[in-house]
């Protein structure tokens, strides 16, 4: 019974992962195309959106009193 549970968990995880990766590989080029490519995104967004070092590394600023 444990082997069946592990097999089911592994195959389900693999199926969900393949669907997610497939959707990502399909939607990323479409999204970039609709946004005008990297150049179009660069024209609309500030430079801080493209800063790799700014991804959740700094402590959040407090807002309010």
Structural class given helices, strands, pairing?
mainly alpha
Strand content: under 5%
Q: What is the gyration radius calculated from CA atoms? A: 20 Å
Distance between the termini: 57 Å
Number of strands: 0
Quaternary organization = single chain
**Helix content range of the residues, please?**
55-70%
Give the overall shape, derived from the CA principal axes.
flat
Q: N-to-C SSE series? A: HH
Transmembrane segments: 6-28
Keywords: Membrane, Transmembrane, Transmembrane helix
Task: Describe this protein's structure.
The chain crosses the membrane at residues 6-28. The protein has 65 residues and is mostly helical. The protein has a domain at 16-45. It contains two helices and no strands. It has helices at 2-34, 37-44. It is flat, with a radius of gyration of 20 Å.
What are the salient characteristics of this protein?
single chain, mainly alpha, flat, transmembrane, 65 residues
What's a quick, concise take on this entry?
With about 60 residues, the protein is mainly α. It is about 65% helix and about 0% strand. The model has no long low-confidence stretch (mean pLDDT about 85).
What's the arrangement of secondary structure elements?
Elements: H1 2-34, H2 37-44
Transmembrane segments: 6-28
Keywords: Membrane, Transmembrane, Transmembrane helix
């Amino acid at each position: 019974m444990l082997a069946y549970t592990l097999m089911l968990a592994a195959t389900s995880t693999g199926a969900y992962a393949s669907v997610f990766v497939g959707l990502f590989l399909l939607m990323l080029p479409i999204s970039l195309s609709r946004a005008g490519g990297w150049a179009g995104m660069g024209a609309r967004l500030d430079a801080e959106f493209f800063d790799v070092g700014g991804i959740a590394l700094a402590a959040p600023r407090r807002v309010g009193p």
